[in-house]
Records
---
Amino acid sequence: MSEKRLLLGDEAVALGALHAGLSGVYSYPGTPSTEVTEFIQNYAPEVRSRWCTNEKTAMEAALGMSYAGKRALVCMKHVGMNVCADAFVNAAVTGVKGGLVVLAADDPSMHSSQNEQDSRFYAQFAMVPVFEPSDQQEAYDMIREAFAFSEEIGLPVLFRVVTRLAHSRAAVLTGDPSSQNALEPSSDRGWILLPAIARRQYLKLIDKQPLLLSASEGTHHNLLEGTGARGVIACGIGYNYVKEADAQNITLLKVSQYPLPEAQVKALAARCSSILVVEDGQPVVEQGIKALLGAGYPVEGRLSGRLPRTGELTPDNVAAALGVPSSRAFGSAQNLAPRPPQLCPGCGHRDVYAALNQVVAEYPGARVFGDIGCYTLGALPPFSALASCVDMGASITMAKGAADAGIFPAVAVIGDSTFTHSGMTGLLDAVNDHSRITVIISDNLTTAMTGGQDSAGTNKFEAICLGLGVEPEHVRVVVPLPANMPEITRIIREEIEYDGVSVIIPRRECMQTLRRHKK
Amino acid sequence: MKKDIILSGVGGQGILSIATVIGEAATAAGLFLKQAEVHGMSQRGGDVQSNLRLSTEVIYSDLIPVGSVDLIISMEPMEALRYLPYLSRGGRVVTSSKPFVNIPDYPDHEALLAELASLPDVVSLDIEEAARSCGNPKGANMVLLGMAAPAIGVVGADELRAAIGRVFARKGDAVVAANRQAFDLGLAEALKY
C-alpha cells in the first residue's frame, strides 16, 4: 500500500528503515541525525530504539543484532563516526549477517558542530559502500536498498546525509513494509578476529571490492544525463543545486552510491573536456578522480577553488561555479547584528557559570575546560567562562593533563549525558593518578542540546563517581539556583582547594523539558 | 507557478507553526513542496529561518537562491532584514514591527524600522499587540500568517484557514477558532496595503 507523506530527510530514512524490516536502531543523539531515531521511537515502539551511551556502544550492539541475523541501524552525527570507528572499521573485516546500515549525518558549515569532516572518508578507509541520497524520496528508497545490499554483500553500508537533507521536508511516496528477519545466528568463525582469521577475513574484504564497484556502476542512482561539452559530477544533494542552476551545455553524472562508478566517470571524461565536481563536505571525489583520470585531465571543485574550500554547498555557490549569473537585487541590510544562540532564561547552567566565575576570579592561574552540549554556550558572553571545547569528554582529560603540567586550579565542566558518553573513563584516569582537578557534572537530567532525549546516567552519577574511586566526601551535590549562590561558591572553593579529584554535581532539570513535562 | 518563501525569527518564536500551516495547505492543494528547517543549537534564542518552496513543478534545491525569494515572513523586524539579499526585486516583506532584543548590540530601533520602511513592498504590524487585542496572545504567528496570505498566492486565504483547522484540530475547537480569528485580523491588515 503506497502512501504520500511529508517527511524530513531524517524521517524518510527512519520510515524506509522500518519498511525494510528493521529490528533495532542504536544511536546517540547528535544534530542533524537525532530525528531518525526519534521518529522510530514514536512510530514503531515494537522496534528496539532506546538511546545508547555513545556511538561505539551503539555500533557494537547493532553488530550483535546483525550477527543474530536481524537488520539493525546505527545513527549518529559525523563526529560520532570518530567514536565508533574501531567497531565500524572492524565490522567490515568480520562482515555482517543481518543487514547493517550506519547513518552518518554530516554537518558542512558546522551549523551545530565543531568540524566538517566527511564521513565518506571513513567508508573508503573501511572499504565499505556508501549510499548518499540526493533527496527525501531517495532517502526512503535507498535505505531500503541499503539493507538488502548489506545482507547480499555481507558488509555494513554507510548511509550519508547532510544537514540540508536531514532537516528539509518534502513529500515521499512510501511502499509496502517488509517483515523483520527471523532470529538466525551466524556460526561463521570469521567473527573471531584473531590474527590468523583476521588475515583471511581481510582478504575476503579485498575480494569484495570489485563487486562493490560493479554495483555502483550498475545502479540507477548513478546516472549520466545530457550531452554538453562541460562535465559535471554531482554527489548527493549537489545534484539538486546543479539542476536548480539549469546550466547549459553540460553532461551531468549524478553520484549517489560509492565506490565511485569508474566506468561512468571515464565515459564522462571522454565525452567532455573538463569536469567540475560538486560535492558537499570535503573533496573526496575530486581527489579520487584525479587519480583515476591522471594529472593531465582538468578537474575542478573545492580543491581548485572553483567552489569554496569550506562550508556547505548552496544553490548560489554551485550556480557561480557553473557560470550562471546571480539575480541578486538587494545588498545586505545596514541595521543588522549577529544573534548567536544562548542559554535559556532560568537555565541551571547559568547559575553554575555565575558561581564558577565568581570563584575562579580569585585564582589568577585558573583554567576551565569545557565540553560538548548546551553549556558550551558558557564560552560566549556574558560568561566567557571556558578555555576549551574539543570533543565529547575532553573537559575532564584536558583538565587532568593541564593539572599534570602544573595548571592550578584545573576545572572541567561537563554535562550529564556527555559524562556517561565519554567522560567516565577519563575520570578513572584522574582518580588513578590522584590528579588535582575539580570536575563539575552539570546535570540537567537530559540530553538537552539535541532536544531533550533521555540521558544514560540519570540518577546514577554519585554511584558512578564513587564506583570509579572518587572519595565520598569529594562528591558534592548542589542545586543550581541564584538563592544557593553562597553555598555553591563555598563548595567550589573547598573542592578546588582539595589536592585530588573532586566532583561537584549541580542538578536541576532543563527548562525545556520542564516546560514540556508541565504541559 | 512557484512561490519561494523565507520564514524567519528568533529561536522559540514559532516560525515552524507558520510553515506547518502553509505546508498543510500546499499539500492539500497538490503542490510540490520543500521546506528546509533549522534544528539544533540556533534554536536556543539565536536567529532561525526556514526556506519554504511551493510550486506546481518539480522543485530541486531545498535552499532558495539569492535574489529569488518572493516573500519574507518574519516574526521580528531585524530578522526580516537579515535575509534581504535573498529577496527578489519584486518581493514582499511581511514582518512584525516589534524588535525582540536579546543581544547587547541590537541596532537602533528607529534606524532599523526606517530601513525596513525604505523597501519597496513591506507589510508590518505589532503582531503581539494585535494577537492580544483579539484575546489570543499566543496567536501572533497566526496574525503574521494572515498578513502574508494575499502574497502567498499559490494557496489562497480560504485554503490556509482550512489548514489551520487541520493543523490545530487536536488542540480543540477553541484553539482553532482563536487562531482563525488571529489569522483574519492579520489578513484584514494586509488588505489595507
---
Amino acid sequence: MTQINVRVDGTSYSDDVEPRTLLVHYLREGLGKVGTVVGCDTSNCGACTVHLDGEAVKSCTVLAVQADGGTVTTIEGIADGGTLHPMQKAFHEMHGLQCGFCTPGMIMASIDLVGDNPDPSDDEVREGIEGNLCRCTGYQNIVRAVQQAAAEMRGTGTASAPAEAVARA
Amino acid sequence: MTAVEDPTSTTAPEAPANQVGQARLRKEDARLITGATTWTDNMVLPGMLHLSVLRSPVAHARISHLDVSAAQQRPNVVAVYTGQDFAEEQGSIPCAWPVTADMVNPGHPSVAVDQVNHVGEAVAVVVARSRSAAADALEAIDIDYESLPVVLDMEEAVQEGADLVHSHTSSNTSYHFVFDAGEAGTGADTDQAFADAEVTVSRRFVQQRLIPAFMEPRSVVVQPQGDNFTMWSATQIPHVLRVMLAMVTGIPEHKLRVIAPDVGGGFGGKLQVCPEEVLALLIARRLGKPVKWTETRSESLMAAHHGRDQVQFIDVAADREGNLKGLRVRLLAGMGAYLRLITPGVPALGAFMFPGIYKFPAYRFECDGVFTNKVPTDAYRGAGRPEATFAIERIMDELAVELGMDPLELRRKNWINAEEFPFTTVAGLEYDSGDYGAATDQALELVGYDELRAEQQRRRESNDPVQLGIGFSTFTEMCGLAPSRVLGSLSYGAGGWESASIRMLPTGKVEVVTGSTPHGQGHETAWSQIVADQLGVPFEDVEVLHGDTAISPRGMDTYGSRSLVVGGTAVVKAAEKVVAKARRIAAHLLEASEDDLEFTGGTFSVKGTPGTGVGIQEVALAVFAAHNYPEGIEPSIDAEATFDPVNFSFPHGTHICAMEVDTDTGFVKIRKYACVDDVGTIVNPMIVEGQMHGGLAQGISQALYEEAIYDAEGNLTTGTFVDYLLPSAADLPHFDTGNTVHPAPGNPLGAKGVGEAGCIASTPAVVNAALDAVRHLGVTDIRMPLTPERVWRAIHTGGDGGDRATAGTNAYGGASTESTAGVSTDASSLGGDR
C-alpha cells in the first residue's frame, strides 16, 4: 500500500492505496465520488474524465498514486454552491444529454476544451470532444451546449481558461 | 442537489395549461449533470460481495477439465461456482417468443455446464470481497477445452450435413417462419405476380452484426432479506425481468422486487434476462449475502446480446412503367448460439414491414432462424424494422436504376397516398395516418435538393475525384408495441398493454406511477407535461415514479417506441379517472350537480360562473381530510388505468443524405443529412428532436462504421472500443430535422412514437447516397459498413467490397441485361422453387 494525499472537490484526503489502483476506482470506491463513472476498459469512452491539476484526464488512465499531491475536480465539484457551472447549465438547456451516463465526462472534457479554445467552431468542438463517446444524443446538442457555455464563460469570465486566452477571444 | 432553473418555462405556475407541445427542459437533468445519479454500480451494501465471471475463450468446445480449487484458496475469495454447481437450479434463460409451434430452442444455461457454444460464454463465477480480488482469482481456475467444429457462416450452417452448434438438434435451423399474403388473404399470389412481371430485380443484402453498446455497462446488485430478494439492475425491463426471474429460479414472484435505478441507455441491449442477473440471484440466495456484478466493456461487447445479423434475399417485380407487382423476401436470421428473450421474434417483427410504404399487390416472406457459434442476437434499436426498411429502400433504388427512373419518381408512383389512410397493406397492417408526399417535399426543400443535384452533375462532368451522391429513404415503421391480441396471434409470450396510476397527495402534489421504465428518454418530463394538462396542475407539482416493482407494480417497460403511445395513453386514462372521481367530490363541495360543472385549468366550477369553484388540488386535500364527501363513495380520487392499444402506430418520414465519395481513397463523408418525420402529435419537441438525432447517429453508424466481426475461430475481433467503432462527434454530421404532424388516430395523445425512427430510416439513405455517387462507375452495391477499403474495392475491383462478391453486381456496369430478366442465380431468393 502506498500513502497518497490528494485534494478532491475542495476536500483533502489522505489514504493508503494499492499501487495498481486507478484514480477512477479510488474516486468511486475510496471516496464515494460516484458521479464519475467507468464506461470502458480501453480509455476510449471518456466517461471517467476529471480534472487533475486543472487538466482534463481520463481517470481510468491515471493511477491514484499519480494524483498524490494533486488537486482533482470531478463533476461533483464544479457547481458553485447552488449555482451550476455554465457548462452544466448549457447541457441542460441545450438538451445535451439523454441517459446521462457520458455526461459527467463530457462536461469535464468540454470545460477543458473551452479553457483552451474559448470560442470553438462547430468542427473544433467535435474534434475537441472526440475522446468522449455518447450513444444517445448524436452529439449535435452537445456541440450546441459547449458553444453556448463557451459564450457564457467568455462573457462572465468564469472560464477556467487563463485570463489572457479569454482576452484574445 | 443543485437547483436547475428552467428558463424556457414560459407559463406561470398559476396558468399551467397546454404543457403538451412545449420544449420543457428535462426534470431528469438535475441529477445527471451534477453527478448525483444512482447507477446500479454505485450501490454499496454492508457485507456486499463481488462477482467476476470466467468466460470461454473458445467458440465451440466440450469442457474436458475444470478445477476451481486453487481459485478458492486465493485470499478474499468466498466461493467459486461452475455450471455443475447450478445445473439443477439455473434452468434456462427464457425465450418469450416461440415464433413457430415447432421452433427448436436448445436451452440456454446461465453458466455452461459441459459445453461452450460461443466465445464469452460464462464457465465459472468467483465471489470475493472486492471486485479486484474476484478478478484476480479468475486466473487460478484450471480449465481445459476439447474443441468442436465451429459454425459461423449462416449460409454454410443451413446446408445439408453442416456441422451442428447443438449436437442434440437435427439441424442449425431453429425455425422456419412464413408469411404469405396470398394465403393470409391480404394479397395476390406472389409466384404468379413474379411469373407475370415484366421486370424483376433480385438482390442479396447483408445486415451485419451490431452491438447495442449502451454507455453504462450492465450491472446488477442483489440483496437477500430472509426469503425476500431485492435486485437492482441496469435493465430496460424491471417488470418483465421480475416475472421471468420468478419463473426461472422458482423464487415466488411476490418475494422478488426488481429495481431499475438510473439506467444509462439500453437501445434494446438491456431488454433481456441476462445470465449474470440469474447467477447473481442464485448466488445471493446460496450465500445469503448481497452481491454485485458489473461488467467490463470488453465483457459487454462479447457477452451481452448483439443485434441485426441477417442475410437478406429480396426480389421485387414490376411492370415497365414502374408499377410494383410483387415482393419476395427470404432471410437467414442469425440467432447466435442460443435463444434469449425475443431472439427469434426480431426478424418476425420485421416480416410485416418489408413492403414499406408501397402498395404491393403480392408479398411473401420466409425466414430461417439459424444457430451459429456466436453470442445470441436480440433486440437492438428498431429490432427487425431497420432490416426490413434497409432491404426495401435499397431495392427500390435498384429497381429505379433498372427501369431508368428517378428513384423518387418510382417511390411516388407506388406509395400510399395521403387520402388513402387508413390503408391496409399487403402484410395485413392497417397504416393509421400520414402524408408521404408532404414529408418528402419538405425534406427536399430542407436539404436543398436541386442545388445538390446540380453540383453532382458538375462533379460528374469534371470527373472530380470526389463524387457526390444523393440517397433517399422514405420509410414507415410499426410502433407503439403493441396490441396484446396481435402479440398473441404472433405467439409472443406476453401482452403489450401499459399501466399507470395517479396519486393525488393532500398538499395537491401529484405522483404519477408509470409501468414504462425510462433509461434516457425523458419520461419524467413528458409525463409531467401530460398530467399538468390533464389535471390542470403545475408541471412542477408532478412527480413521476417508475422502475421499481414495489412502487410501480404493473408494467411492460420500455422498448419498441411504445412509451408515449401506450404508457402515455395509460397516464391520460388514469388522469381522466382522477378528474371523474374529483368531479363528484367537487359537486358535493359546491352543492351543485355534477352535470353543471365544468373542469378547466384545474378548477371545477358551475358553468357560467367563472372565477368561482374548487381546484382539483383542493379536492385532494378535502378527500384526505374526508370530513365532507358524498355518501356511498370512497374518500379517494386516486386512479389506475391499463391501456391496451387496438392498433400499432405508424410514424413515417423522408430522409435524404448527400454523400461525398473520394474515388481515389474510398473515404466517404456525409455532406448533408435532412429528414422530415411524422411522429404524430409532439409532446416535447426538444425531446423528439433529441431522439431523432440519437437514432440517426446509430442508423448512420450502421451504414458507415459498426460491425461485430468474428474471425475464423469464432473470436470476436471487435471486442473493445478500440476495435468496435462507436462514432465520436467528429465522425457524425450536422442533422437538419423537421416534422409534419398527422396525429395517430389510435390514442388520445395522437402520438406515434419516435425512439427508433432515425435508426430505422437512415441506414438505407446513407448507402443509397454512396451508391448514387459511384453508380456511374459500375458500382451497384457496397457492403456495410462502408469502410474506405470496401468503398475503394467496390469502385476499383468490383463486387460489394465485402468478403464475397454479390452475384449480379457487375450486370450494372453498363446497359444491364442480366438483371432485367431477374435471374441472377445466387441472388434469387427462392432457390429450388424457381
